[in-house]
Amino acid sequence: MSSLIRWEPLERLVSVDDMVDRFFDRSLWRPMAFDLSATQVAVDMYETKDDVVVKATLPGVKPEDLQVRVEGGILHIDAETKSEEKVEEKNYIRHERRYGKVSRSVALSSDVYADKASAEFEQGILTLKFPKREEVKAKSVQIKVK
Fold first, then answer.
1. Is the dihedral of CA 6, 7, 8, 13 positive or negative?
2. What's the pLDDT at 33?
């Protein structure tokens, strides 16, 4: 069975808003945009039966240069890496390693105990575990068969 589709010749015309958006997407300014990956911390966040786990990748960061805090249900991770070498003759062929401050903020569920969190920092990976509140943990219900 076939259906008829009404042909709208003006439907394919692009709106002025779309044209302006495309212009700025392809403009000369785009190559100069900041690379957010250089200033943000990569984060994985997942849920287990008892915890909400956040893993952040912080290569080259020393534990003393790392700050973690929770304010108003928002997890803030701040870190800083410092250049350890002084190169007198700077004829770099490639300079991609970043130094400076990086940060990330992630909203936490209100269903966790932020004050009971545990933290581990090993090989550049920060692992935070936030225990879930008892009332939101999954509970099984026994079914009686008659």
1. positive
2. 46
Provide the whole-model pTM. Answer: 0.62
Is 93 within the bounds of a domain? Answer: no
SS3 51: strand
Would you state the structure tokens that stand for residue 13, as one six-digit string? 């015309």
- Domain count across the chain: 1
Per the structure, the complete domain to which residue 76 belongs is given by 36-82+100-137
Question: Which of 101, 113, 112, 111 has its CA nearest to residue 67?
Answer: 101
Strand-pair category, 51-57 with 66-71:
unpaired
In a domain, 109, yes or no: yes
Enumerate residue ranges in the chain where pLDDT < 50: 30-36
pLDDT at 55: 95
Taking the C-alpha atoms of residue 30 and residue 2, their distance in angstroms, rounded to an integer, is 46
Confirm if 73 and 88 have CB atoms less than 8 A apart: no
